[in-house]
Here is the input.
Amino acid sequence: MKLNKIYSAILLSTLPFTPALAAGLDRSGQSIAAFLQPGNYAEAGISVLDPTVKGKDLLKNNVSDMAEDYYFPTAAIKIQATEQISVGLLYDQPFGADAMYSLEPNMFTKGKEGTKVEVETHNLTALIGYQPTENWNFYAGPVWQTVEADINLRGAAYQGLSGYNIKVHEEEAFGWLAGFAYQIPEIALKAAVTYRSEIKHKANSIETHELNSLVNVASQLDATTPQSVNVDFQTGIAANTLAFANIRWVHWDQFAVAPKFLKSVSGNNLIDYSDDQWSATVGVGRKFNSQWSGSASVGYDSGAGNPVTTLGPTEGYWSVGLGGQYSPAENYFIQAGVKYFWLGDATARTGTTNVGEFEDNYALGYGLKIGYRF
Here is the structure.
């Protein structure tokens, strides 16, 4: 069952490149797989997610699809500087949210406006790895992250806060990453454990209220994106075939965003979660010939507690995914994937009041990536 180095390098890339739809605000999954590729390597990709999230409010009014489609790019470069030292740079958008409630009679709209949320983050991770032997790799590095948001609350679900707006200006902060990997290239075995620190942001924000022109509160908003651990494993199980698995933990249960004015008048947080996120993906990849390979996977995400915020009313998911890879030459490939998500039912809550039920929802994810070895 031994694999030569070319086959092993190809199979190491045959993972299902499809976007995540995870608990809390989690998006990219924060993979460092590109940094663990053999030799010099670069990649660029884009993922698209098309979710459908419908339900009923507390008064049994229909709530049409409130989840916006979104896309996010990724990019990475890894250089094997010496036999024992590697360096890399990874870009992704780890956390985010996009939602807009349609203009229909329900508790999440008012007049010609519906509740709307946009949260965007950017991550740049610099890594240096030390390989004392062919089998071991120890790595660490700093993480630069930006966060910005624009949220508008509309409708009876928010009671006196209907008409509330908050704009969080882009702010940067730093964290760090550390981990280790063990591999046996001849049988495509690789195991890696990666820890990412929490990152504390102190962002400038402005809160306003469309019904009260006196509300124009400029303040510093404290928000901490959560720490996480990724465990990745893969091994050859037959000629040209490998099995892979990923387990991810994200520390959401202490996450809270509490703007000054909103907290003072309601006593509640704008966003918070009650449970940590646990997710797992397992699958199989196979090389069919010198140019074509593919993968299949199943996934699970626990969610981050229920009831949930109205800004993302789902609780976890189950998923299935398919990926394909075309390698015109030994040193580069094009990879595409698709994933279907069965989204978990959730109760939407504002403060301590349940205001909606969202059931039988789903999402489709698509991904495209180009990789190059040099």
Observations:
- The domain at 5-373 is CATH 2.40.160.60 (Porin).
- The chain has a mean pLDDT of 90.
- The chain has one domain: 5-373.
